[in-house]
Amino acid sequence: MNKPLLLLLILLAFSCKTPEARKPVSVKTGSSIKESVQRNIKLFNQEKEHIQALIDSSPESEYIASENGFWYTYINKVENDSLQTPDFADIINFNYNVSRLDGSVIYTKEHLKTRNYAMDQEELFKGLREGLKLMKAEETIKFIFPSQMAYGYYGDDNKIGRNTPIVCEVTINTITKK
User: Fold this and answer.
1) Any idea what the Cα angle at residue 144 is, between residues 131 and 47, rounded to 5°?
2) Which residue intervals define the domain PPIase FKBP-type in the entry (predicted)?
3) Over 80: is that where the pLDDT of 137 sits?
4) What sign results for the dihedral spanned by CA atoms 126, 127, 132, 133?
5) Model-level pTM greater than 0.70?
6) Any domain includes 8
7) Cα angle at 109 between 103 and 114, to 5 degrees?
8) Residue 18 belongs to a domain
9) CA dihedral in degrees (109, 60, 64, 135; nearest 10)?
10) Do residues 139 and 109 lie in contact, with contact meaning Cβ atoms separated by under 8 Å?
């Protein structure tokens, strides 16, 4: 065999080595996450105080704390047990308005118009989506949503600012079962 070819093969075999992992350019401590958590806890506690003050200012209304983190009271409660709450894909025809905790109106029922909503199949802010699941046809409920259950950090890019708790008065007109 040719000596230069043999030498070349030996050099190629020994010159290859496994790749080494690169060391990270910077090390993150997670402090920004901790700061964000603390900021959100502080915001939640402030909102909760304002909401509790609103609830305390209307002793004639019996507010119920939901499992989902919002409060509600019945304005018109339907006692008929034969009427059911909506299930997945049921079509709900409803009206609602949106106001701030101080009572100033953000959107009226006329502005928002009557809406048809396929339960859990269309976009709707989290609090209202969960609130509709508690209602029967012809009921009216007043909901108080903290900002994380409403439009959250971003707002609605129109009249509702970021981190704004809201009050919604919702009336379900009909529920069409699927």
Assistant:
1) 130
2) 89-176
3) yes
4) positive
5) yes
6) no
7) 150
8) no
9) -40
10) no
